[in-house]
Specification:
Number of strands: 14
CATH superfamily: B-lactam Antibiotic, Isopenicillin N Synthase, Chain
CATH architecture: Sandwich
Pfam family, one: 2OG-FeII_Oxy
Keywords: Iron, Metal-binding, Oxidoreductase
Largest sheet: 8 strands, mixed
Helix content: 25-40%
Protein name: Fe2OG dioxygenase domain-containing protein
CATH topology: Jelly Rolls
Structural class: alpha+beta
Strand content: 15-25%
Distance between the termini: 53 Å
Strand order of the largest sheet: 1-2-10-7-12-5-4-3
Bound molecules: 2-oxoglutaric acid, fe (ii) ion
Shape: globular
Organism: Lupinus luteus
GO molecular function, one term: metal ion binding
Order of helices and strands: HHEHEHHEEHEEEEEEHEEEEH
Number of helices: 8
Length: about 325
């Protein structure tokens, strides 16, 4: 099957239908000799407490090792995601339409009903994705055997993600010495979701980004870049730094909710995804939020729930073509 037939029609015209070429540079993703990211060992969090604190303050992201996810699971997930994406667009549409998994592309901002939030100003983001609410995966019963085996892997993967997010969140709350109301569960792994992304390779030099510049709205994001193709970049000291994929490691981002909860001690990292001119890239992100109705309280921000935050983001994307985010909730004197 031609690669173009597997892509959503809206994206096809953006990519030239021509074989990958080595004539262009690979999209700013030269391998750096030394990995500059802070490295956190999940098995040794007690010992790495200061390192974790520093990483969240200084970088807003870190590389997680010793996370306990079997390497075979990470590799299978990647391989099967690739296979699912390479089905024809029509068969993906038939399998996902009307299901709990939302097949979407072009914009990362979705309404709660799963419709992409678009505006005239917005440029298309060159990706295709599946939005997977983990707690509802048992209600998804795909007929296609490849999609079913991917579903089974995601169920297994989701258990690890929820364990890892809980462990990291609890460590951060302890380090920050936060006085959270004990009756409320702040981190809601039940409402967390996975997004499986495919960024098609694209030789069209006029194309924008795989994913626009943004911060994540989550408490934490756990990104699996088992793929060898890079693309993720973070803004650091006013420069874009490529976050290279290193197999069997995960990238953890501090998101907006965590920045607010930490009273700006932690930093919701600004990032984007570049399009690769030679190869398509697959990545799998997990986003975890606060429980329904839980207010994030801090001295720098007005209290807000995640629903209120998401609603505001959607309104801003519709009105201005961009997310404004935490600044919307900041007390006036801090603006
Ligand atoms: O695909 C990636 O590497 C990053 C995706 C991302 O930033 C997001 O979904 O918020
Ligand atoms: Fe992101």
């Amino acid at each position: 099957m031609k690669e173009l037939d597997t892509l959503p029609p809206d994206l096809r015209h953006l990519c030239h239908d021509q074989p990958p070429t080595l004539a262009h540079d690979g999209g700013g993703n030269l391998t750096q000799g030394v990995d500059p990211l802070p490295i956190i060992d999940l098995q040794n969090l007690n010992h790495d407490k200061n390192k974790l604190d520093e990483a969240c303050k200084d970088w807003g992201l870190f590389r997680l090792v010793n996370h306990g996810i079997p390497p075979t699971l990470l590799t299978q997930l990647h391989d099967q995601a690739k296979q699912v994406f390479s089905l024809s667009f029509e068969s993906k549409k038939d399998s996902f339409d009307g299901s709990i998994v939302n097949h979407f592309w072009g914009t990362p901002a979705l309404t709660s009903s799963g419709i992409g939030v678009t505006s005239d100003h917005q440029k298309t983001n060159l990706f295709e994705a599946f939005h997977v609410p983990l707690s509802q995966l048992s209600q998804f019963q795909p007929q296609h055997p490849q999609i079913e085996s991917f579903r089974v892997l995601l169920v297994e993967y989701g258990k690890h993600l929820s364990r890892i997010a809980t462990t990291l969140f609890e460590a951060m709350v302890k380090i920050l010495d936060l006085n959270l109301e004990p009756s409320k569960s702040y981190l809601s792994t039940d409402t967390g979701y996975v997004r499986v992304y495919r960024y098609p390779h694209c030789t069209n030099p006029d194309i924008g980004l795989g994913m626009e510049v943004h911060t994540d709205s989550s408490f934490l994001t756990i990104l699996n870049q088992q793929d060898s193709v890079s693309g993720l970049e973070v803004l650091r000291d006013n420069q874009w730094l490529t976050i290279n994929p290193i197999s069997n490691t995960l990238i953890v981002n501090v998101g907006d909710l965590m920045q607010a909860l930490s009273d700006d001690r932690y930093n919701s990292v600004v990032h984007r995804v570049k399009v690769n001119m030679q190869k398509e890239r697959i990545s799998i992100g997990y986003f975890v939020f606060s429980d329904d109705g839980v207010e994030i309280k801090s001295s720098k921000y007005k209290p807000f729930t995640y629903d209120q935050f998401r609603e505001q983001v959607q309104q801003d994307v519709k009105a201005f073509g961009t997310k404004i985010g935490l600044a919307r909730f900041k007390h006036a004197q801090d603006n």
